[in-house]
Amino acid sequence: MKKDELADTLAGMPGWTYEAGADRIEKTFSCQSFLTSIAFVKNVASIAEDVNHHPEILIQYDKVTLRLRTHDEDKVTDKDLSLATAAEKAANETDGV
Ligand SMILES: C[C@H](O)[C@H](O)[C@H]1CNC2=NC(N)=NC(=O)C2=N1
Asked: What residue ranges carry the coiled-coil annotation (predicted)?
């Protein structure tokens, strides 16, 4: 995906940023507790398995960072944006995120 196209898309996705050095998109979600973080991660993991596209996940107590890139293509693709959108839905549907 072209950089300007990606920037336009991310402008409509609050909290998601493009990390130029790592060539990935990421967002840190704030959760109410550690167990809420785990519940959210389980929901994201289930989606990731369904679509066979897997984020890097960093859990820091009450924060969960999702990092997305398409390793197979060595860049950010629609698969990443689609998983990011699905993760937003999971966040809305997980109590305490
Ligand atoms: C063979 C299989 O489709 C690939 O290994 C998938 C699995 N999950 C993946 N996840 C992510 N984030 N990027 C990939 O390129 C990727 N590739």
From this structure: none
